[in-house]
Amino acid sequence: MDARKLNETAQSMVAGDKGLLAMDESTPTANKRFAAAGIPQNEETRRAYRDMIVTAPGLGDCLNGAILVDETIHQKTTAGVSFAQALAKVGIIPGIKVDAGAKPMAAHPDEKITHGLDGLRERLAEYAALGARFAKWRAVITFGDRIPSDACIDANALILALYAALCQEAGLVPIVEPEVLMDGDHTMERCAEVTERTQHALFAQLVAQGVLLEGIILKPNMVVPGLKCPHQNTNEEIADATVQCLLRTVPAAVPGVTFLSGGQSGELASARLSAMNARFKGRMPWALAFSFARAIQEPAMQIWHGEDANVPAAQKALVHRARCNVAARRGEYTSAMEKQ
Ligand code: 13P
Fold it and tell me: Does ligand 1 lie within 6 Å of residue 111's CB atom?
């Protein structure tokens, strides 16, 4: 393990005011989103859509890195270069999602365990040869009657740590993503309790498995009330609860925290990230950035609609959302930016 190189890569993933873009939807998820937007669902439309993303003018000013998926890292852009090369050319570090998805957990109804450790060492070597410099693995924690269980939280934490150790052995920075879902009617306080429990378990396992904390990125959920909770908190309350949870659980050695958006609107995700950076400026030991998928891509996907003629307008919408999040990193996002 090259500790210096891993730390340098992790630092560059959260450098300045920029963030990460998750463009690593699995084929079923990408198809589901295309179907909802009325876009044909096949390998070529997925390639063309992602070509629209990586060739968007100005994207490199907003992103340090982008997360690809197995299909895309093996495809070429319309200009005939690999997606990893196209990203690297505009200063965006290519990464790769390496988990095989969250599947139902045996003996634990309604809970999930993430698969994909089998053959991971070999796949990581292949992805590194294809140009990836970091990886991502997502675990899913679900709310419900008497869940999440300790069994689910602990098993996912162990698997995340085993994945992270393999990544570092291969010279790739692991993004560790324990996503506590927004689905449910639970309160923000309950989300805080479960997120804290999840992240404590995760860091205990990362340490136990010998993972270099200076060479990882944490990708957590924000601490928010469930989508069906009757009481929806203010952005300031969410910012305070989220940063308090991170301060209690994330060691100062970790270079950066990059949030998932989890189904929040683009505007809310930007506003809440901005509130955190504004209210805790100078009081956080790690960079607080973004690694959104839906909160950056959604408007662009609707505008693109599978048609070449819509590419420039879709690219504008994509870069606009990315710029809003760059402002949020500085704590300077305002809703007035949406009218620009
Ligand atoms: P969302 O921002 O759409 O939640 O996706 C982030 C991600 O990468 C989930 O693994």
Answer: no
For residues 326 and 62, the answer to whether their CB atoms sit within 8 Å is yes
Ligand 1 center–CA 23 separation, angstroms: 9
Q: Is the peptide bond before 299 cis (omega within 30 degrees of 0)?
A: no
On whether the pTM is more than 0.70, the answer is yes
pLDDT at 1: 84
The residue among 46, 48, 41 whose CA lies nearest residue 77 is 48
Mutate to test the pocket of ligand 1, among 179, 217, 260, 301 (most ligand atoms within 8 A of CB): 260
pLDDT digits (tens, 9 = 90+) for 310-330: 999 999 999 999 999 999 999
| Extents of the domains making up the chain | 3-330
Instruction: Tell which atom from ligand 1 comes closest to the C-alpha of 67.
Output: 8
Q: Token pair 């008497």 is at which residue?
A: 146
Kindly indicate whether the domain formed by 3-330 is annotated with CATH number 1.20.1300.10: no
